[in-house]
Amino acid sequence: MMKRFxxxxxxxxxxxxxxxxxxxxxxxxxxxxxxxxxxxxxxxDSDSDADEPGTLSAELTAAHFGxxxxxxxxxxxxxxxxxxxxPKSLKALIEELIAKSKQEKRERQAQREDALExxxxxxxxxxxxxxxxxxxxxxxxxxxxxxxxxxxxxxxxVRELGFEMKAQPSNRxxxxxxxxxxxxxxxxxxxxxxxxxxxxKDDENSRRPSHMSADDLSDGFILGxxxxxxxxxxxxxxxxxxxxxxxxxxxxxxxxxxxDSGEEDPEESDDPDGHSDLExxxxxxxGSGTPEKxxxxxxxxxxTSDGQKAREAxxxxxxxxxxxPESFEExxxxxxxxxxxxxxxxxxxxxxxxxxxxxxxxxxxxxxxFGFLLEYVGDLATNDPPDLRVIDKLVVQLYNLCQMFPESAxxxxxxxxxxxxxxxxxxIETKGRAAFPGLDVLIYLKIxxxxxxxxxxxxxxxxxxxxxxxxxxTKCPVRCLQDVVKGLFVCCVFLDYVSLSQRxxxxxxxxxxxxxxxxTPNKQNQGYTLVHPFRAFGKNSExxxxxxxxxxxxxxxxxxxxxxxxxxxxxxxxxxxxxxxSCLAVCLAxxxxxxLMYGVLPSFHDITRPLRALLTEHLADCSHPRELxxxxxxxxxxxxxxxxxxxxxxxxxxxxxxxxxxxxxLVKVLEFGRKQGSSxxxxxxxxxxxxxxxxxxxxxxxxxxxxxxxxxxxxxEIMERDAERKxxxxxxxxxxxxxxxxxxxxxxxxxxx
Length: 753
Known about the structure:
Elements: H1 2-12, E1 28-29, E2 32-33, H2 34-38, H3 58-65, H4 69-81, H5 90-133, H6 141-144, H7 153-163, H8 176-199, H9 201-207, E3 233-234, E4 237-238, H10 241-262, H11 266-269, H12 276-287, H13 290-296, H14 305-316, H15 328-335, H16 340-353, H17 362-381, H18 388-404, H19 406-431, H20 439-451, H21 462-475, H22 481-497, H23 506-517, H24 549-554, H25 573-598, H26 604-607, H27 609-619, H28 626-641, H29 680-752
Antiparallel strand pairs: 1-2, 3-4
Helix pairs in contact: 8-14, 16-18, 17-18, 17-19, 17-20, 18-19, 19-20, 20-22, 21-22, 22-23, 22-25, 23-25, 25-28, 27-28
Region (Disordered): 1-20, 61-312
Subcellular location: Nucleus, Nucleolus
Protein name: Nucleolar protein 14 isoform X2
C-alpha cells in the first residue's frame, strides 16, 4: 500500500513547467529514477542457480569443492539400505546431480515469472480503481484562460536591456606615432609594387611556371599567345628579311622601355630606400652580355600587350612616397602640371611619409613645407586667371600643418603680412599714396582668419591682420573698378573676423559709406563730407554710377567673382555696368550685415545717419533695379526696428556737494606730569591697559610655575622607574654570576674525578 500511495502521489504531482520552482523535482540515482527503484522491479537473472544471490547449496559445494567423496559416501550408505541393487558409478552420480540442479533452476524461474505476472496484474487493477479513489473535478476552460496583464513600460525596458547586445572587447586605440608608422609602411610597399610593375617584374614572375602537384587536373589551363608566324615564300625564297626587321623593331621598342624605366624621378631618387636593389639588377643585366638580350628578345619571350599596358599605367601612376621638398622650386615641380586631386594627394603623402614621429628632422621639414605651400598659394593667386579651386582645397592641408606646428605657421603668416605692410609704407613714402595689394595678399588675410581664432582680445597673428586691413581701407584710394572689388573683399573678410567678437570697426563703415557715395548722383544736397580715401568731387566720384536703363533692366543679381580683383577687364560697356551694379548689391548686403551686428549699439544710430540719408533720398528713389531698391528698403526697416538697449553715457546734472567743515579740537595743556596732554577717558584707558598688562604677566608667571612643577614630577617618576630597572638588572646579573660559579665548581669536580 505504501508503494502504491507513493506512485499515486507521483502521478498527481507531475511537473508541468520547467520554470515553476514550486513543483517537485524527480530525484535520480546514477541516471535511474528513485521512484522506479522503489518499485523493486528487479531484473530476473535466468542464470542464477540459488534462491539468494551469493549463496551455494551444500550439495553443490560438496560435489565441486569436496572432491565428490562426501556425496559418494552419502549415496553409498543410502543404497546399502535399499534392496540389493547395484551401486551407481561416480559419473552417473554427477550426471544425476546436474539434472537435479537444472530442474530446481527451472522451478525457481517459473515461480519468479508467476510472481511477476501477478504483480503486474495487481498494478493494472490498482490503476483501474485509482480514478475512483482520488477523482478531481476538471477545472473550467474559462479559468484556464485568464487574461494576461499587459506589460508596463518598465518591464518592456528591462526586456529590451536583457536582449540588448553587450559590449565586445576590442583592440586598443593606436597612438599617432603607430598610425604614422603603419601609413609610411603602406605607402612604401605600394611604391615598391608600382616600381616592379613599371619595370615589368610582375610580368616575368607571372610567366614563371608555378608548382603543380601530382593530383592537379589542370582545370585552369589557358593557352598563351600564339607566337608562331606564317611561313611565306617570295620568288621561291622564304621571307626572312621581314622577320628580322620585325624582331629588330621589337628589340628597339623594348630597349626604349628599358631606358625609360632606368630613368628615375628626382623625388624617387631621394627616397630613403634608394631602390638600390633595382639599380643593381639593371646593372647586372647590362653586364650579362649579348646572350641575355638574345634570350630576352627571343620570339617565344616577347611581351604581351597586357604587360605593356601595365607598364605604361605604372609609369603614369602617381608615386606613393615623396621626400619633403627643400625649396619652393622643388614643391612647385612636384605639383605643377597635375590635377587638383593629384596635388592634394601629393601634399598628403609628403606629410605621411615625413611625419615628425618617424625621424628626428621631419619636424623641420614639415615646418618648411607650410611656408612653401603658403608661397605656392600666393603663386596660384597671381596667375591669370587665378586657380581659386586649388587654393580652396589646399587650405585644408594648411590647416592640418597649422594644427601640428602653430608657432612656425604664425611666423610664416606674420612674415607675409609684414612684407605687405612694408611695401605699402614704402609706396606711401615715395608716391604719397598706396594702391590695393594683389590678390595673393588678400587671400593671405582670408587664410589667416581661417587658421587662427579671431575672437581673442589680442592674438599675435589676427591682431596684425586687423591692423593691416584697417590700413588698406583708409590709405588705399579707390581709382578703378578693380579697387572697388578688392575693397569689398577686405570688408567681407573684416566682417568674418569680427562676427564672434562683434567689435565695432569705423574704417569698415566709412568705406561702405564711400562706396554708396560714388554710386549716387546729386551730391550737392548732401549735408556731410567724406573722408580719405574717397573724394567728394573728382574723376572717380561717380565710379559706380549707372545711367543706362537697358543695362539696369538686363542686370541679374549674382555673386561677384574674384577674377575682377586679379585684373580682369570688361569686354563691353554692358558688362562693366553689370559689374558696377553687382558691386553695389554686395555693398548693400554688407551694410545690412553691419546693421544686424551693430544695431544694438547706442551710438550706431548717430554714426549711420549719413548712411540713412543716402539710402532714403538717393538709392531707394532712383531708377536702380528693383532688387536693389528692395534691399535698400529692408536695410531701412532693420534700422528702424533696432531697439536701443543701452543709453549713451552723460554727466549727471546736480549741484556740487560742498566740502565738509570740521570743528577744531581743543587739547588741555598740562605743564607737569608724565601723562600730560590727555583727557580723563584717555587716562582711564591707559590705566586699564596697564592693569591688563600686569595681570597678563602674572598669569604667564603662574603658568610657567605650573609647567615647571609638572616637569619636576615627570622627572621624578622617570628616575624612580630607572632606579627600579637598574636594581632588577643588578639582581639578574648577581643570580647569573652565582649560577656561573656553581657550574664552574661542578665542572672542576668532574674534571678531578
